[in-house]
Amino acid sequence: MLVPFFLGLALFTGIFLLHGLYELTESVITHGFSFPRMLMLVAAGLPETLFLTTPMAAILAVLMGYGRLAADNELTAFRVAGFSLTSLVLPALIASLLLSGGLVGLRHYGQPALAEFRNELLREMALPSPERLLTAESYLDLGPYTIYAGEVDGAEMYDVYLEDRSEDQPVDIFARSGRWTEEVADKYVLLLQNGTMHQKLADGGFRRISFQKQEVEVDMRGMAAAPGEEDAASLRDLYSRAAEKRQNYREAKTESADEEDLRRLQEDYRSEMLEFHRELALPMAPFFLVLVSAPLGMLAQKSGKAMGFVMSLLIIFSYYVLMVLLEPLAVQGWIHYNLALWLPNIAFGGLGTILLYRLWRGK
User: Fold this and answer.
1) Cα–Cα distance between 250 and 175 in angstroms, integer?
2) Would residue 159 be called left, alpha or beta, if left means φ above 0 and alpha means ψ between -120 and 50 degrees?
3) What is the number of structural domains in the chain?
4) Same domain, 118 and 145
5) How far is residue 169's CA from residue 186's CA, in Å, rounded to a whole number?
6) 38 in the same domain as 78
């Protein structure tokens, strides 16, 4: 089962990562991010993807592994030799339990640290790179500045025009050349050479200054896009946050607060509790899904590899659909929040137990 597991994990993870490939490529072009830094960003976001793809790979591996045993009549040979088929499921269950434990540890310890690192990279990516944005014979608006260059060669510019609207009276600057220097504290410094400054004064006069070198600081923070930062809370932090919300609701209920406020507070703490249980139940999914996949693979007989792949997709699709449908019901109070997101695990675990019992009865 190891080969189909790792192949499936690589396949499913690659498909999920393709979703953000366009944004990453655009960031490399627009913001000047290097390819190694882009790989660091992808690696830092892997845990969130692995929580979804690891159960899929585990199901695929188990269905194909036990399905192959069934297709090659190896299960019949085990029966004739006197082995119980349920004993063959034990290695897969132990491996899946260890896998689930590893995912829980990754969610509690690894993901918060990686999420903080990823957020830092996202904050840097949200900062535009003017030398990448400015093209020849075009105007670029950067906050209070409008910049034009007749020629652009990387960080070097020629026949530069800059309008500075940061003061009450705008300043027009013409320079033969300009160059973007290093970024300092979210600011880019534009070094202009051999030019003149023109400004109309408030009293109606006019000022003209020639210069050999002139530096203009362009603050890019106002142009930064919202990075969409990830929550870096551990499981302990999530539970503490949910418990605090629940305490706020109980105190407001004791004080006979307004019905609308009580409803909002109740939904808030239910949502926080659901997030905690989601982040804990999802890493445990491999164990419960393998519990149902192993006997299904044995019972499939000569279904073939294609059927194993289709069955794995159907199982994981059913699991996630059930989880998505139950969450809003728990927010509305129709299902207890402590139970809602564990019901898919319970349902598939129960089905797996029934199938294992059928195998055991069949000897």
Assistant:
1) 67
2) left
3) 2
4) no
5) 25
6) yes
Task: Name beta bridge partners: 160.
Answer: 149, 175
Q: 161 with 170: CB under 8 angstroms?
A: no
Residue 317 tokens read as: 């699709």
Residue range 268-287: mean pLDDT, rounded: 89
CB atoms within 10 A of CB 307: 15
AA identity, residue 242? A
Residues near 110 by beta carbon (within 8 Å), at least 6 away in sequence: 47
Residues 115 and 42 reside in one and the same domain: yes
pTM exceeds 0.70, yes or no: no
Domain end point (choices 194, 223, 252) = 223
21-52 core/surface letters (b: 16 or more CB in 10 A; e: else)? eeebeebbeebbbeeebbeebeebbbbebbbe
Among the ranges given (13-22, 211-220, 263-272, 347-356), the one the predictor scored with the smallest mean pLDDT? 13-22
Give me the domain span that covers residue 164. Answer: 133-223
